[in-house]
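sry for the spam today, last one i promise. struct tokens for design, 453 residues
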């Protein structure tokens, strides 16, 4: 029997005083993120005046706009003329929309567009002070591009890869200049989203890190430093959030119940509505490829792949976790989908039971907190507040809760650990308690007063 966190800390009702404290914490976290203990604040930066962006897709276009918005000269490079023209047209359309909304003057739009030129030749990177590669997540493709960059780029140019989780060292290894290679994980749409994860490779030079962190600040973003780890900071935690939401479906919840709990907690959208909006087929090929080699000592969830196999891709196909009516993006419950979930549970031998809002939140949030503790111990994240600001700026974590690690301190780490240990006893592997969490509880300390050794 689960004990309710509601008697200790009400996740659904936050006082004005709590909101003010959470806001103050967010301001503190944003300021702290800029400080890197082993890099002096006065370290000379590499001059950045010309930037090349590789890949004219949605992400590359958004990055080019972010750079043009601060007056930098940008060369957008794509392998195909057609793709390049489409990318440049999309940039113009994005600016035109901003003008229509009255947030940009036509003169400013033309000024920004004048900063962006296009090319289909990789040699066009030759004068760039920095290159940001923004092609899709394929290690072979990225390595191939970095081999070419190594040939064409001038000495001292920063070579950044926009990856959401690939090993930056593996990309750097194909060049003769690993000290110049860094991860620059932008969030989509890149010209709107405020988070930039700067990923430090094992050989990345300190001035490369400092220059990219400062460039992020100039673009109006919060730059957060991470080390190499699957998913870095943001996606490492997000995996636990999504996985537990999916397991909750198999165990007895329905999509609208999970989403309702998350919205009541303060998220703008529930996770299943988000899946439907993004497209359930995002990451489908990667998941399919991993089926054969994934460990068999833990539970996995394949419901989303099965939805894709049924053609339920989300809003774009009119049905996903919900059903949608033509021209209307409102998620509506779908009895056919709900029946499918119930049948899948039976097929897996899972006896469904009602799952309370408390339980849904504990599973979605505490898995993130536990993973956050692991990232701190491994040195992937520098400080708990870096994890919080990553979540507040990049993942829609409700601002009035201050971020996952701040929230854990508010609830009480002893209570969080007790729930994690209960869930570990019930569900196994994914709930293995983080050693740092156990240590802090034993020492009666919290994340806020933890310092990296």
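last one done:
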């Amino acid at each position: 029997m689960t004990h309710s966190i509601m008697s200790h800390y009400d996740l659904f009702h936050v006082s004005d005083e709590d909101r003010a404290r959470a806001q103050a914490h967010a301001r503190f976290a944003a300021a702290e993120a800029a400080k890197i203990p082993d890099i002096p604040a006065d370290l000379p930066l590499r001059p950045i005046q010309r930037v090349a962006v590789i890949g004219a897709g949605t992400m590359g276009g958004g990055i080019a706009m972010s750079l043009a918005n601060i007056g930098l000269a940008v060369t957008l490079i794509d392998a195909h003329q057609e793709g390049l023209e489409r990318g440049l047209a999309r940039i113009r359309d994005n600016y035109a929309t901003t003008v229509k909304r009255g947030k940009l003057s036509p003169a400013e739009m033309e000024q920004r567009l004048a900063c962006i030129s296009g090319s289909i030749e990789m040699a066009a990177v030759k004068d760039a002070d920095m290159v940001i590669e923004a092609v899709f997540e394929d290690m072979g493709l990225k390595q191939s591009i970095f081999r070419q960059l190594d040939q064409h780029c001038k000495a001292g140019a920063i070579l950044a890869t926009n990856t959401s989780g690939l090993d930056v060292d593996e990309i750097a290894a194909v060049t003769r200049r690993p000290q110049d290679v860094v991860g620059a994980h932008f969030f989509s749409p890149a010209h709107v989203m405020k988070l930039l994860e700067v990923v430090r490779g094992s050989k990345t030079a300190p001035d490369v890190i400092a220059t990219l962190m400062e460039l992020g600040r100039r673009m109006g973003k919060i730059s957060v430093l991470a080390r190499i780890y699957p998913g870095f900071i943001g996606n490492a935690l997000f995996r636990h959030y999504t996985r537990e939401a999916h397991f909750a479906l198999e165990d007895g919840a329905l999509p609208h119940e999970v989403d309702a709990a998350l919205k009541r907690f303060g998220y703008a959208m529930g996770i299943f509505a988000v899946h439907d909006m993004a497209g359930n087929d995002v990451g489908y090929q990667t998941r399919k490829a991993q089926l054969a080699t994934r460990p068999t000592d833990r539970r996995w969830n394949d419901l989303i792949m099965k939805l894709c196999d049924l053609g339920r891709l989300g809003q774009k196909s009119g049905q996903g976790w919900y059903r949608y009516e033509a021209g209307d993006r409102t998620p509506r419950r779908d009895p056919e989908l709900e029946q499918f979930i119930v049948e899948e549970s039976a097929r897996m031998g899972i006896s469904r039971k009602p799952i309370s809002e408390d339980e849904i939140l504990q599973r979605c949030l505490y898995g993130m907190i536990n993973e956050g503790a692991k990232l701190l111990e491994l040195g992937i994240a520098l400080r708990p507040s870096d994890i919080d600001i990553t979540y507040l700026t990049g993942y829609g974590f409700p601002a009035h809760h201050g971020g996952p690690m701040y929230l854990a301190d508010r609830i009480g780490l002893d209570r969080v650990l007790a729930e994690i240990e209960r869930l570990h006893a019930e569900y196994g592997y994914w709930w293995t308690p983080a050693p740092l969490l156990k240590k802090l509880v034993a020492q009666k300390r919290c994340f806020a007063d933890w310092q990296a050794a």
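The longest helix spans residues 357-378. ok im logging off now
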